[in-house]
Amino acid sequence: MGKLAITGGTPVQTSYPEELFHWPVVNDAMRRAQLEVLESGNMSGTDIAERFEAEYAKWQGRRYALSHNNGTSALTAAMYGLGVSAGDEVVCTTLTYWASCIGALQLGASVVFCDIDPETLQMSPESLESKITSRTKLVIVVHYMAYPADMDRIMAIARKHGLKVLEDVSHAHGGHYKGRMLGTFGDAAAMSLMSQKSLAVGEAGMLVTDDLEVYRRAIRYGHYDRISTLWKPEEYRGTKELPVGGVKNRMHQCAAAVGREQLRKYDREMREIDAAMKYFWAGLDDVGGLRIIYPQEACSDKAGWYASRCHYDPAAFGGVSSATFMKALNAEVGHFAFSNGCNFPLHLSTLFTDEDIYGYGAPTAHFFRKDGSNPGDVTGRLPVAEGIMPLLLGEPWFKHDDHRLINPYIEAVRKVAANFQELAGIDEGADAAVGGVALSHRRQGGKEASAL
Ligand SMILES: *Cc1c(COP(=O)(O)O)cnc(C)c1O
Fold it and tell me: Counting atoms of ligand 1 from 1, which one is nearest the CA of 306?
């Protein structure tokens, strides 16, 4: 029997501090707003959604915001809005949630993946540039795990090659890069407002842009009932206000009502999360082997700290895997607070290279490329992304800056780091690292599970 809980010792904590993790924080204004929509008999209208859009656009500092039923549909509509069409290529980082890019396949385009920067986990500008071909139309930049991507270099590359840029801000609402808000760099941005994201609304998404044409096209793609507000009758007459995307992207008004109230308190909540996470890391300053992933430039931040990870150096812990280290930490605190790994690299999925999705009798991605080549050939091996999973450890996502409640988590890390030798015998190796399709926060027995 060792000192660590996982080897039979006494855990640091035995009770679960629900209030430290519960998300979203629900207030009376949200409850009232829900009920009003429900009782109004207008759940499928757009009046409340339009108010939410106006407030969101103002908060985001962009001219237009268009509400969607989820982030996935907002991203696909943004691609259509930006003119992605048959035969085009979009370049996307391979480390992201699938919805950043799969929508391109619906538009007859193919996806080419690029590698990441090992320090920041963001799209590598060098790798991005190496993937650009004469068919490339769009760069999809994800501010992955709340960290701002290298927008100076990415925008310069995109402008140099005449490419459009779409930001996926699903992990970093309200974040900044060198003082400028994420979502204001690209030609458009889209974001999930799903209930486990930091700006948590429910099943909901938003598209923002300053470009009227992008906004108009996104409306025509999936908001049939609003076509006549922005398109002249002679522009759509023959089509009778039918959505060209064949999809219906309208946001539920209950979600819009919740969204309006969430937005009102989001800046304050972000500040509290930021203080809590920084307090946690300040308590681990002198622990070797774990290194915070945080932007170094002035006025860049990790707003919301969604799915935040740190660098884990197995060599500092006698080769013990991050998976085993994580299990030891969770045993100390009594719930699934620490996680490991990240989304699996998307380029390893044959969905993007071999699958005949629409029954053309050939792999969809080849069929969509004018020369019939395989996007997998361009994507190639992306060694940094492929090797990163065992080198990451996800820290708990504290929603309140309550030092008394956070201290046990600091203590747990210090204790496991000081006694890592006890883990050598139970280490299952790096293969136990998890990689999933989604960063989900499953609830296990009433306890938040920050898993992949
Ligand atoms: C969650 C997420 C999406 C998709 O949003 P939904 O609202 O779940 O459809 C897109 N991109 C990223 C990076 C995400 O994390």
Answer: 15
- Does 99 sit in the ligand 1 pocket, CB within 6 Å? yes
What pTM, to 2 d.p., does this model score? Answer: 0.95
- Strands of the sheet containing 392-394, edge to edge, are 290-292, 309-312, 392-394, 339-340
List, for residues 161-171, the tens digit of each pLDDT value.
999 999 999 99
Task: Among 140, 170, 305, 306, name the best residue to mutate to test ligand 1's pocket (greatest count of ligand atoms within 8 A of Cβ).
Answer: 170
Q: Determine the 3-state secondary structure of 348 from DSSP.
A: helix
- Does the beta carbon of 78 sit less than 6 angstroms from any atom of ligand 1? no
16-48 confidence digits (pLDDT tens)? 999 999 999 999 999 999 999 999 999 999 999
The model's pLDDT over 329-347, given as tens digits with 9 standing for 90+, comes to 999 999 999 998 899 999 9
With a 6 A CB cut-off, is 13 part of the ligand 1 pocket?
no
In the reported structure, the alpha carbon of residue 101 is separated from the centroid of ligand 1 by a whole-number distance in angstroms of: 10
Whole-angstrom distance, CA of residue 289 vs CA of residue 437: 27
Report d(CA 100, CA 79) in Å as an integer.
Answer: 10
Q: How far is the CA of 303 from the centre of ligand 1 (A)?
A: 17
User: Alpha carbon of 67 to those of 119, 221, 270, 384: distances in Å?
Assistant: 34, 13, 22, 35
Q: Is the CB of 142 under 6 A from ligand 1?
A: yes
Instruction: Give the tens place of pLDDT for each residue, 402-435.
Output: 999 999 999 999 999 999 999 998 887 765 445 5
Q: Is the CB of 67 under 6 A from ligand 1?
A: no
Give the Å distances, CA to CA, from 376 to 96, 98, 139, 346, 353.
17, 16, 17, 11, 6
